[in-house]
């Protein structure tokens, strides 16, 4: 079932759709039959044109279940999938947000858990976006009249990211990820981020050549991954590769220990109370990483792994991909 409505001035558009099931069957290059089943589809969209030339409103798409298999094997089941997007405007700014959630991921009978993601960008300068949309409109009209419109189309594609970035800077926009998470039977790992934009201090800087760092006022990022949760995830992955439950658990233990050691060696993560964590804070050209203070310049040296390892005369721990016997 589907319904749609578009106003005469094309400034209001509503759309809804529902379906019990879709099935797609194809054959891959190996002559194997791939089957994709989509069950319980619901889709809705309600939008109207805003004062900055951008459609405002919300869109939602959801599936009760998505099932994929090859020759009736290698089953991948995703249950309870939902995407939600919303855009609104205030006096001088635009706000947009994206929500994603997955209730359950099951691969060949192995329960991998559930995930969710929330991303928002608040405070996008409306007038900058309006100017950009008017420019796109004028270029589109001009390109339709031209014999060769490739130049105009390519220019538009290049300008999109640049103009959105400039609008974010001018509005001192705030990017939020609250949170990105994955949860299984043993716990939940999360990543949270808040980043506030700013107009660069140097007035002589060409706005078309602004670097990412010059437009960041503040960053607050936090990572928390329970060790048992990560071991469970790696155990499930190993089982899919054909290892036994016991072998997979041993390999997962080795891999997580190696990752934790590597993170500690590079000073990017900590290990406390069986939680692999990291806290990063940046403001006024100063960085705090897990309680350690750095200038922007000294922090950049952390990314030179070879220099760090040589100065400390250490070698990075190897992350195993095979089982190491306890008593060789």
Automatic annotation (TrEMBL):
It holds the Pfam family DUF945. This is GTP-binding protein.
């Amino acid at each position: 079932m589907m319904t749609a409505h578009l106003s005469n001035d094309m400034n209001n558009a509503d759309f809804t759709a529902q379906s019990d099931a879709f099935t797609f069957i194809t054959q891959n290059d190996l002559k194997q039959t791939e089957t994709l089943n989509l069950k319980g589809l619901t889709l809705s969209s309600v939008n109207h044109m805003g004062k900055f030339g951008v459609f405002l409103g919300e869109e939602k798409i959801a599936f009760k279940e998505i099932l994929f298999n090859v020759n009736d094997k290698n089953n991948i089941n995703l249950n309870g999938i939902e995407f939600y997007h919303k855009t609104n405007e205030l006096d001088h700014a635009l706000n947009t947000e994206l929500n994603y959630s997955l209730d359950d991921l099951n691969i060949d009978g192995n329960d991998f858990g559930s995930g969710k993601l929330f991303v928002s960008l608040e405070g996008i300068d409306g007038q900058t976006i309006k100017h950009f949309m008017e420019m796109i409109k004028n270029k589109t009209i001009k390109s339709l009249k031209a014999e060769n419109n490739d130049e105009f189309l390519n220019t538009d594609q290049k300008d999109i990211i640049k103009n959105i970035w400039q609008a974010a800077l001018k509005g001192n926009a705030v990017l939020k990820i609250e949170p990105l998470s994955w949860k299984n039977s043993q716990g939940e790992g999360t990543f949270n981020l808040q980043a506030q934009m700013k107009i660069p201090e140097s007035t002589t800087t060409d706005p078309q050549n602004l670097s990412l760092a010059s437009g960041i006022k503040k960053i607050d990022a936090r990572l928390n991954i329970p060790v048992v949760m990560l071991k469970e995830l790696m155990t499930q992955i190993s089982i899919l590769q054909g290892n036994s439950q016991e072998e997979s658990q041993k390999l997962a233990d080795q891999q997580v220990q190696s990752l934790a050691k590597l993170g500690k060696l590079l000073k990017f993560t900590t290990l406390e109370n069986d939680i692999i964590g990291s806290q990063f804070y940046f403001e006024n050209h100063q960085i705090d990483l897990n309680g350690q203070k750095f200038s922007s310049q000294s922090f950049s040296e952390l990314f030179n792994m070879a220099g760090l390892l040589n100065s400390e005369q250490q070698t990075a721990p190897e992350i195993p991909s095979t089982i190491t016997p306890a008593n060789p």
